[in-house]
Amino acid sequence: MNLPTEPNHRPTSRDVARLAGVSVSTVSNVLNRPDLVTDGTRERVEHAMHELRFVRNRSARELRMGKGRTIGLLVYDISGPYSIAVARAAERHLTEAGYMVMLCSSDGQPDRERRQLLELEEHGVSGIVIGPTSHDLATVDEIRERGTPVVLLDRASPDGEHCSVAVDDVKGAEQAGRHLLALGHRRIGLVNGPHDRRQCHDRRRGLHQAVEEAGLKVDATVVEVVVPEPDAAAGEASVGEVMKGRRPPTAVMCINDRLALGVLRGLQERGIRSPEDVAVVGYDDLEFAAMLSPRLTSIRRPKEEYGRRVAELLLDEIENATTHVHQQMVFQTGLAVRESSDLPRP
């Protein structure tokens, strides 16, 4: 038995052919067109593969054929529970369709995002799903023009030249604002992230619209604190800033549930009760929202369907390129009212 003796040698089709006593083309036929090979020859080749612990190099085959079965999924924050939930749903659907998913994170850095987009293209991915970090889609446009389909996640296509799946975050934040205003709150804290992030900008705008719709002045009603990263630690640290002053808020809206978790913790540390003293509303309605004490009121965004839809749009563009029509899907939010905001102001 002529097994490879070189250390770390990965068996090749040529090694299999030599051990089985057949040509390399016969090994290729066993792998790709087994109906062209007799049963006896196929069994001999398969036995050689087993002896050598041969693993086919799919990337090399795809390179020769000029096509791959890999999808790039580039999200803003790979550690974010919402991003992971959507990515999991998309990955499940893409895997069922026979594709492998490469998951990447831009960490909110435009330069890193550009590098990863170009690297995904260099790897020959069949398509890319991206949650862009900024309004500049120049690199996305370049990649699409060179033939790689791209679907925008959490961002509406500005010109209709891409498929996109997004949530109407302005209306979602309006829902949260109306809910708090209807309970009698007239001083509302807003714990927000950087305004150059679309979700932060849109949710701020939605709260402002709800306040103006109620006939109130934004400057007199909304107390905004901007944190560099919208996570639980930042939410907890923001409470001192939010609650300072002669007229502290009676309610706090957070632009995601992780911030809200931190705000609840910060309030409790200061002996401030929720909802008795301060109502709290989050955003995303993550799984843990209903497990907190008090249970967290939150704006519900779709996760499973969101991921499935973005996968379906990309697959259609990859597999039906000549008939594909770009679609821009916009999902609506829902309000899940729980204990953290279920008391009206006296």
CA radius of gyration is 26 Å
Structural class call reads: alpha/beta
* CATH class membership of the largest domain: Alpha Beta
Let me know the CATH homologous superfamily of the largest domain: Response regulator
Q: How many structurally independent domains?
A: 3
Strand order of the largest sheet: 2-1-3-4-5-11
CATH architecture of the largest domain: 3-Layer(aba) Sandwich
Polypeptide structure, described:
The chain folds into 3 domains: about 15-55, no CATH class; about 70-165 and about 305-330, Rossmann fold (3-Layer(aba) Sandwich), CATH 3.40.50; about 170-300 and about 335-340, Response regulator (Rossmann fold, 3-Layer(aba) Sandwich). By secondary structure, it is of the alpha/beta class. The mean pLDDT is about 90. The strands form 2 sheets. Strands 2-1-3-4-5-11 form a 6-stranded parallel β-sheet, with helices on both faces. Helix 1 packs across helix 3, helix 5 packs across helix 13 (about 305-320) and helix 8 (about 170-180) packs across helix 9 (about 200-215). The chain contains 13 helices and 12 strands. This is LacI family DNA-binding transcriptional regulator.
